[in-house]
């Protein structure tokens, strides 16, 4: 009975099939960690920091200028670091 030897491409494909899902999971966990370690701001806190009205906040979100909020339950929260980055990028 002949023994089949895997080609370099077969090994690479097998390894990537295992590694790729692990890399995706690491990325997901890093995103969750970011929210877990960053202070989360309420809508009124974001408006106060940016010195804008609520309608302006949502207009800028729609325009892609301000990052979208993270839903926590039914409430919107913004990572403080994202709002500070927005301020420094203006």
| Total number of helices | 4
Strand order of the largest sheet: 1-3-2
**Low-confidence spans:** none
Query: What's the N-to-C terminus distance?
Result: 70 Å
Largest sheet, described in full? Answer: 3 strands, antiparallel
Radius of gyration: 22 Å
CATH topology-level fold name of the largest domain = Recoverin, domain 1
CATH architecture of the largest domain: Orthogonal Bundle
Query: How much strand?
Result: 5-15%
Structural class: mainly alpha
- Report mean pLDDT, rounded to a whole number: 89
Any idea of the CATH class of the largest domain? Mainly Alpha
**Can you write the helix and strand succession as a string?**
HEHHEEH
Counting structural domains, the number is: 2
Counting DSSP E segments of at least 2 residues, the number of strands comes to 3
- Global outline: elongated
Overall helicity: 55-70%
Describe this protein's structure.
The protein is mainly alpha-helical. The protein has two domains: 8-37; 39-90, Recoverin, domain 1, CATH 1.10.238. Helix content is 63%, strand content 11%. It has four helices and three strands. It has helices at residues 8-37, 43-50, 54-62, 80-89; strands spanning 40-41, 70-72, 75-79. Strands 1-3-2 form a three-stranded antiparallel β-sheet. A hairpin with a 2-residue loop joins strand 2 (70-72) and strand 3. The chain is elongated. The protein starts with 7 loop residues before the first helix and ends with a helix. The mean pLDDT is 89.
